Amino acid sequence: MTTGAATTVLDREGLNALVAALTASGRTVVGPTVRDGAIVLAELGSADELPYGWGVELEAGHYRLCRRDDEAAFAHSAGPQSWKNFLHPQREHLWSADRSPDGTVQISAGSAERPRYAFLGVRPCDLRAIAIQDRVLAGGAFRDDGYEERRRGAFLIAAECTEPGATCFCVSMGSGPGADAGFDLALTEVVDAAGHRFLVRVGSEAGAELLAGVPHHASDPAIREAAVAAVTAAADRMGRVMPSVDLRQLMGASLDAERWDDVASRCLTCGNCTMVCPTCFCTTTEEVTDLTGDHAERWQRWDSCFDLDFSYVHGGSVRTSGRSRYRQWLTHKLGTWHDQFDSSGCVGCGRCIVWCPVGIDITEEAAALRDESARKEPR
């Protein structure tokens, strides 16, 4: 949290009014809610659908909902989805082609109308992930038009982290627990003897305009101090830590490490880590046609470097072993991502650890590679 920034305060009714104003403006409001035994991201009809009073227990390969002693709405760690699911959806219709009886072919674009989103409760690590995907999908020569349009219309309301999970390591990656940039509004939830309130900071003109239209009141020193203390305390309670070494250099020097055999013996190459990762962006395209051959469609869908066909070239796949596919994922995420996009591809959200069926831990693997490299250094 940025100290000294101008702040205001919303209560629960004010948060309801905020969601109502966003809905009235024609936006689809998406935020966390309890569904199917998890805190998931879904369209919200009102702020009452937020997971008030719910938290989560996290460990490697383990996720469980649990009741809290208070009614906090944002005191939970990242769930199985990220905002990538909405900005860079799993499947997207690119175009259709229809052949007329006279033999002419008419081609039409895919989804003509895309929703204008408002995201409520974006964690600081996910703000960083969105910024990374902006660079990947909208910042280069080959832009994803669908992503760019959805992102351009998105309104982001951050929720600073006050309750990190056992698999969180955003401090190691410099992406949390406080929100410094990339938001329209930022909330810091405070639940104490004085009540349940949300300290609000404005990050854009659109955010200021929206806030002006909903009931709020000025902040006081007590709530500002409580908010700063909560975020500061969260930074000291991270459940994981990434080794404090040059990860880019470590990955480049570890291509022949023995550790890859160890992790390959456990990895199922299922691709769960890439599906839940908020920055993984790989896609493929597929064409479908009807039985007559007169109608065809092209779709873009998520793909994964753990898929055997992902590295297929004429003659076969380049990465045929689980060892090579896991190595590709980790060395790209922590190493060669810097060469492509000038940043790490990891934001420390810990989703890949939680949703790995066998509990492979990215921080543990990086530490093991560091230790192996240190053992091999000449003395």
The overall pLDDT average reads 94
| Head-to-tail CA distance between termini | 44 Å
Overall radius of gyration: 22 Å
Main beta sheet, described? 8 strands, mixed
Shape: globular
State the order of secondary-structure elements, H for helix, E for strand. Answer: EHEEEEHEEEHHEHEEHEHHHHEEEEHHH
Total strands: the figure is 16
What's the tally of helices? 13
Q: Fraction of residues in helices?
A: 25-40%
Which structural class matches the secondary elements? alpha+beta
In total, the number of domains comes to 2
Could you name the key traits of this structure?
single chain, 379 residues, alpha+beta, 2 domains, 8-stranded mixed beta sheet, 4-stranded antiparallel beta sheet, 13 helices, globular
Provide structural commentary.
With 379 residues, the chain is an alpha+beta fold. The protein has two domains: 204 residues, no CATH class; 118 residues, no CATH class. α5 links the parallel β9 and β10. The longest helix has 20 residues.
Compose a concise summary of this entry:
The protein is α+β, with helices and mostly antiparallel strands and 379 residues long. It has helices spanning 12-24, 84-87, 124-138, 145-152, 170-173, 205-212, 221-235, 247-253, 259-264, 272-276, 322-341, 351-354, 362-376, and strands spanning 7-10, 28-35, 38-43, 54-59, 62-67, 91-99, 105-109, 117-122, 155-159, 185-192, 195-202, 217-218, 283-289, 295-302, 312-313, 316-317.
